[in-house]
Amino acid sequence: DVKVTQSSRYLVKRTGEKVFLECVQDMDHENMFWYRQDPGLGLRLIYFSYDVKMKEKGDIPEGYSVSREKKERFSLILESASTNQTSMYLCASSSGGINSNQPQHFGDGTRLSIL
Amino acid sequence: DAKTTQPTSMDCAEGRAANLPCNHSTISGNEYVYWYRQIHSQGPQYIIHGLKNNETNEMASLIITEDRKSSTLILPHATLRDTAVYYCIVRAAFSDYKLSFGAGTTVTVRA
User: Fold this and answer.
1) Angle CA B101–B104–B109, to nearest 5
2) Choosing among B27, B36, B46, which should be mutated to test the A contact, i.e. which has the most A CBs within 10 A?
3) Could you report the per-residue pLDDT of A42-70, keeping only the tens digit for each?
4) pLDDT digits (tens, 9 = 90+) for B19-66
5) Which of A42, A100, A107, B4 is 20 to 30 A (C-alpha) from B90?
């Protein structure tokens, strides 16, 4: 079974803090994704990566950065947390080329609250 | 730009088959049908996907009509743990890597 593990289920941080969200997958997948999910707005792609050290912006990259130093790990960084970044953050991974038909598999999510 | 239409909610009895419909009348030839579900406060879980042939795995079956304009996800023996929001999406391989969920169908399995 595919296993995508996110480091925290719940996280509370203060505005202005630098926040790190970690994601690890154990299936040797080439592609990894960071989404946020908000009520009424659905799923929105923040960043994705199709190879080690490669990254591409999604639809809402502002205020975020990512790092992929190893194939199995994809980190999302909130450079200076703000209250509008309070959300459910979801990491996903998939195999094959970035546009293959292989499904994306998600972690359990990190519910992040910025106070 | 909703590509799929699903009922807002449905109930089913524990132990019975749950049949979840999805309309995707504008589906293109290179678009696959994917099903995910999301149990409250958890991440989305991949269930199954297909292009035009019916598919079955350990979780469910996917029946796609011959014209590909609609499909049905079948959970053969629903349990209380199958209570979740189910999302049907269409996605083009080789051109579309972003996932986008609509409102989905809230499925409640009752004892």
Assistant:
1) 140
2) B46
3) 899 999 999 999 999 999 999 999 999 99
4) 999 999 999 888 999 999 999 889 999 999 999 999 999 999 999 999
5) A107
Nearest to B94 among A35, A99, A107 (CB): A99
Tokens at B54, concatenated? 């019916």
Nearest to A45 by CA among A71, A67, A73, A64: A64
CA distance A5 to chain B (A): 11
The span from the CA of B88 to the CA of B36, in Å, is: 7
- Find out whether A34 and A23 touch, Cβ atoms under 8 Å: yes
Q: Is there a contact between B45 and B61 (Cβ–Cβ < 8 Å)?
A: no
> Which run of H or of E encompasses A20?
strand A19-25
Q: How far is CA B102 from the centre of its chain?
A: 11
Is residue B1 scored above 50 in pLDDT?
no
